User: What shape does this take?
Amino acid sequence: MDFDAKELSISLEDSEEVISSLLKALEEHKVKQCSFASVSGKITDFDLRVFQGGMFQKKHFDEPYKIVTIAGNVKLKQGSGYVVHLILGGANLSNTKQVSGELEKGYTSGELTIRAKITEIL
Assistant: This one.
């Protein structure tokens, strides 16, 4: 993990759980608030909240997806810990199926790097 005053680059190794690893890195670097800037890598065995049929639904994906877009933010709320909004867009390379939604849980498939712009430090 590289850190400077404005950006944090978090590199996760194969089979790491994305959200818990991200929160651990933010705690280590005393980040109070940040927004996601870019992503490189794949995830597998993941749950997304997707908007479908006029409401949000949880969908599970078993196969690896290359993550092509990232949006959202993380904010530390006093007394309740971090609140995470991590929106991902990805493509399954074997059948060209595309998905996007809010990540609830997922694991890296190979190395995954997330870059975040820090807006507030503790």
